[in-house]
Design goal:
The chain is of the alpha/beta class and about 300 residues long. Helix content is about 35%, strand content about 25%. It has a single domain, classed as 3-Layer(aba) Sandwich (UDP-N-acetylmuramoyl-L-alanine:D-glutamate ligase). The strands form 2 sheets. It has a 9-stranded mixed beta sheet, sandwiched between helices. Helix 1 crosses helix 7, helix 7 runs antiparallel to helix 8 and helix 8 crosses helix 10. About 45% of the residues are buried.
């Protein structure tokens, strides 16, 4: 095991349309994509695309949607560890004007406890707060073994307060800060109190603000992708997380400014493609995107 990801699995159905019908109306979408989905799940698939062999502990059922998900994972070389639920989860996503509307059908009624995994050789754990009992258990286990831990803090969840005590790299969203009723800057200071050695807040088109081991605050701006090239922003944040995990593993001498610059280029590539699968970048894609947009970015 090189990297362990823990999250909730979805099948994402993403479609482009100018209008969403109601009542008895109908419309025809301009394009669509069907792919895997979920925060830590998409991060794991992104890591696999960039050469990491991830293990993924996620929710799966005995139905045809989960069979589809298993085939996606097999093709991407993502090793699965099941946590059984009755039905696969499904997301319907409509991107438009740099935003995305989402309808989710989620089954998080776990039929069994989370599986016991051998962490030998594992270098990093990434969790998104879903499966809170499993996330906490493995964060504690990794802390005891000296394995780096990372949190995608998209929202404050039921045991986030306890979980943060075992997180080395906490990258949270503006929504997370709002739930804390703090500004991004105040949230960074609060993350320090938990012992997170790296704390960051993602700000969408404004990039990411963060502190690292020096304790100083830094700002990496988003790359200026023209609005006309933005197709689908869904999953771009998850790919951002997957990319800095890859950078941590493959380029250990980099600073956190460099890790996040690598991740922002991955996100900039992602938002120009429809659906999570097409949005996953290779190292060459990231370098090409960086060269295209960094020259006009400060």
């Amino acid at each position: 095991m090189e990297a362990l990801f823990i999250g909730h699995a979805y099948i994402d159905v993403t479609f482009l349309t100018d209008t969403l019908p109601t009542g008895d109306d109908k419309t025809i979408a301009d394009d669509y994509a069907v792919s895997f989905g979920g925060n830590a799940v998409t991060a794991a698939f992104a890591a696999a695309k960039m050469g990491v062999r991830p293990d993924l502990l996620c929710t799966l059922a005995d139905d045809w949607l989960s069979l589809m998900f298993r085939e996606m994972a097999r093709s991407a070389r993502v090793r699965l560890h099941d946590r059984k639920v009755s039905e696969a989860s499904l997301s319907f996503i409509m991107p438009k004007d740099g935003k995305r509307a989402i309808v989710r059908c989620r089954d998080d009624n776990y039929l069994h406890p989370f599986p016991t995994l051998n962490l030998d050789g594992c270098k990093v754990l990434h969790v998104d707060g879903h499966q809170p009992d499993a996330a906490l258990h493995y964060a504690k286990a990794c802390r005891e073994k000296g394995i780096a831990t990372s949190l995608d803090g998209g929202a404050v969840r039921e045991n986030t307060d306890e979980l943060l005590n075992y997180i080395d790299v906490a990258v949270v969203s503006e929504r997370f800060c709002e739930q804390w009723e703090l500004s991004p800057e105040e949230s960074l200071e609060k993350l320090k109190t938990y012992g997170c050695r790296v704390g960051a807040v993602t700000l969408g088109s404004d990039g990411v603000v963060f502190y690292s081991q020096d304790g100083e605050r830094h700002h990496v701006k988003a790359l200026p992708v023209p609005a006309k090239q933005v197709i689908d922003t869904n999953g771009a944040g998850d790919i951002f997380h997957g990319a800095y995990i890859v950078s941590m593993l493959q380029f250990q001498s980099r600073t956190w400014t460099e890790h996040f610059r690598f991740a922002r280029a991955a996100s900039a590539y992602a938002i120009q493609h429809l659906g999570n699968e097409e949005s996953l970048p290779t190292h060459d894609n990231i370098e090409t995107t960086r060269q295209e947009f960094e020259r006009v970015s400060v």
